[in-house]
Structures are given as structure tokens and as C-alpha cells.
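Project standup — Tuesday

K.O.: blocked on the structure for the chain from last sprint. Re-posting the sequence here as requested.
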Amino acid sequence: MSLTGIVVSAATASLVVIGAGSWLGYQRLSAGDCAGEVKLAVTAAAEIAGAIQTTADKWAQGEKAQVGGVCIKVAVAAADPATAAATIAAKHGVGLSGLKAAPGKPVVPDVWVPDSSTWLLRVGGEAPGFVPTDNAPIAESPVVLAMPAPMAQKLGWPARKLKWQELLGQLTTSKSLLPGIVDPTRDAAGLTGLLALGAAAGNDISGAQRKVAALRKLAANTSSIRQDLLEKFPRTAAEVTTGLSAAPLSEEDVVAYNGGKPPIQLAALYLDPAPTALNYPFAVMPEVDPQKAAAAAALHEELRGTTFRDALAAAGLRGPDGKAGAGFIAPTGAPPVATPVIAPGATASQGAAASAQATTAISQVLGSWAAITQPGRVLAVFDISGSMLTEVPTAGGLTRNEVTKRAAAQGLQLFDDRWSVGTWFFSTELVGKQAWQPKVAISPLSTARNRLNDALNDMKPKKTGDTGLYDTALAAYKTVQQGWQRGRVNSVILFTDGVNENPDGLTRDQLVADLRKARDPQKPVRMVIIGIGPEVDRGELKAISDASGPSSGVFIAEDPAKINEIFLQAIATRTGA
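H.V.: unblocked you, prediction finished:
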């Protein structure tokens, strides 16, 4: 299954198992038999909110909507999925990378219908207690590459189908192509486009370089909201060569844009392989009481009918099976039936695996994006104890030290010159009795990049060295705090493959007490610890991160060959595992 394709089964099979059989039964009685009223609050993406409300209103006007003799009143509020996700995450005490919750007490609906299951995965990845039920898709909108029609025609559209590999080549080599994207931390179509680009680039070194080049080009023309991006497309023939050339958007975005009769229409390019479509999951929130859960089940059943499918068509959306209702105006070249977003026949265990895989993929691509677009200030601290000489069978016999160096070098490529980075090594007795050795002070990469690369190239484990973890962690934390800069994420990223072995140094209790004492809410420091291999003690590392502050986290690369993937997750994730 492709990198982008796994999102669907993650949003359905892993969670829908709670679905139909577990709902409380409901019954529809005649209009006068209501014993009361249950109010069902639904928050939905703006493009589908009207179709849900219209269908719910017709439902109430015809055969009265009831559950257990109580009338159902549905109120649908349109909300940007990013805003709703931040609000729901805040309710669970976590944050999402790139998003801020609205001020005040978070108000969570009974049912949430975002435009993509990626939002459920992102919230659930940070807050394990967030386990909504149902989650089955109720609509679909394929993710396409939107392009001014005259430019698309030069590429052979609509007869010729463009591949993601070709797009990646265009992004990295063409000087005339001006691509854009809606910030993928805020937009599911943008995120899906990046997932597809990442899959096309591959995981080898040259693929990573192509991916970085493409991300930087996209980042140069990013919009925080879709409407702003749409305004950048050319409006006259003269602007075709100077306006926005291409952007990953939804089919519905193109339908709505062209419905406004612009002088230059947008072409929707359905790239090969097709990315996962926006799938509009019907997510019943975990806090909902049984009566509202039953009302939600009744509403969802109503949304499976022809009335809702036709309302979707009027809104430029398809049904979850990829088929459109009456009156749907498909873009030129659109498939009559899009790839269904429902994954048939998936088991609960397959769904759980797909969910974990999808969450990891999302974290990695957002980590890459964060490194490129959200410059920070970081001290990278590397374990050079003797155990780092251990060979990694899955990495062709390279040592842990060598795979860590490679991961660090690739990470350094992602960071642009606005970042400030420094590096330390640690073991035991590196500078007299001191466990750590500063190599490059935290400095702007515009001046320090070569020195950092040289330091990484020279990184060699101390054969007889142990792991002075506790003393080093405290010293690194205080160093970053002392030079703290407003408006940046000030971080320590510490790599280690062992447990603390430094009898002359701090004890765990002393370290935890000192970190808690050093914490300053006005100058937060994020302590990210990346454990390498099976010998690390997760509990030990978590004690350090917990004492460092709420945004800190622990990430374990049980297979050291995958440390680069873990590194990207660590950048994107706000809390850690």
C-alpha cells in the first residue's frame, strides 16, 4: 500500500470496528410522540456543513427524527478543520504543530466532520485518550494538482496523465514553474500533496535531496488559508507566466473556483498514483453521552441516503464510494468514479497497524516542513560512548555512530540559514571529569554550517567511555535556556544509545529536581531525547523529558537504521511518546 493510501484504512478500519453494532438502538416515532429533545451539535468543514444541515432539516420535516422517543435537533456549525483540531487537542491537554487553539475554554462538539482523517490521526497521535467512534467517511473529494488551464494544456492535459515523479522533477529543475501550497500544518490537501511528493522522492540520499529542494520551493510561496492561495492564480492571459503555476488542492476547490467564472479556469490534474482523497469522517467525540451517541448514529444513517448525496453534489463533493449525486459538475478530465475512500475488508489489527503507519508518515512530512519553514534554535547533543561502536545489521553493518551521523547530516540539510544550531558530544571524562564536550556553540547556520559538518565528520566514539547522560542533559538544558530567544522554539535534541553510567555524577532524583527548579515558563526549553537501539531505558528518558517541560518528548529508534525517520517525527511532534 502506498504512503498516501494508508491514511484511509487508518481512519476507518482501526476505529470503525466500534461502529454499527455498538450503537444504541434508535427508533423513529410519529411527530407528536416526542418525550423531549436531544440537541446534537455538529462541527463540520465549511464545504460540507450546508449539505449536512440541509439533509438534517429535511429529515426532521419528513419522518420526524427521534431516538428512544426523544426528538433530535441537529445544529451544524461550519469551522475550519485546523481551528477545530486545535480546539479539540486543547481539550485533551495537547497542542498540534503549527496550530494554536482559540483563547478561552475549549468547546467540543458532539460530532466532528473535518475534511480529512489526517486530522483525527494528528490529534490522536498527540493525545492517546482521543478515541472518537464511528469515523466512517461520509463524502469524498480527490486531491488534485490545480493548474491554470493554458499551462496544463502545454503539459498534454486533459489527454495525458501526469505522474508525481514528473511533478517532483519539475519542482526541482524548472525555473519558470511557480508552485504554491496551503500550509500543510493547517490544510489537509496540502499535507496530502506533501505525502505524495515524499513517496515519489524515495528514501535514499538523492531522494532526500530532491525532497528538500521541492519543499523549499513550495515553502517560498505558502499561504495560511486556501482563499489566499487561490487569489494567487492568474486572472489574465498576461499573468499566466507570472502567477501561481500549480498547487495541491481538492477537486471541490477547483469546482468552486471555476464556478465563479474566472477569466482563466483551473485545470484539475489527477496525478498518478492518486493521493488519498479528502474523506470527511463522521467522528463522534469520546465525551458524548449514550443518548447523543444514538442520535449521532441515527443522523449518520440518514446521511447515507440519496438526499445527502445530491446535497453533496451541489456542494462539489462526491459520496464516500467515489460516485457523485445528481447535478455534480465534474472538472474536465475527472474520473466518473473516484477511488473509494472506504477500505473494504480491513480487520481491526490491520487498521491499527495502518493507523500507526499513517501517523508516522504524517509526523515525518510535517517534521520536514517544520525544519524548513519554522526556524528555531537548537543544541544537538550526541552520545559518543563506547556502545555507539555497535554495528547495526539493518544498516549494512554501519555502527550506531555512523547511522546517527548520517541522520544528523540529512537533518542539517533541511535547516535553512535562519536556524541557529550548535553541537556537543558526551560520554564520560571528556574534559577532565566533565562528561560533555562543546564542539560548536549555537550559531546561525549562515556562518556555522561548515563547522557543524566538520564536527559531525569528526565524531568518533570513545571506546572506553560510558554514558554521562544526567550531567549532560542538565548542562545542555541550562545552556539553551541562558541564550533563550523569543519567537523561536528553543530546543535540546539529545541522541543516546544507553542508560546513565556515571557514578561520580548526578543521580536521577537530583537531575529531575534540578530540571524542575531550572524551568521558567517565560523561557521554555524543549528537551527532545532520541533513544537509539534496545538498550535505552524509556522510563529513564521519560523522567528527564517530563521534568524539562510539557513540550518535551522521548522518541525511540529501536532499529537504529530508522533514526532519520524518528528524527523527523521528533521535530514535528509537540509532546513525544
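K.O.: great, moving the ticket to review. The first helix runs from residue 6 to 16. The longest strand covers residues 420-431.
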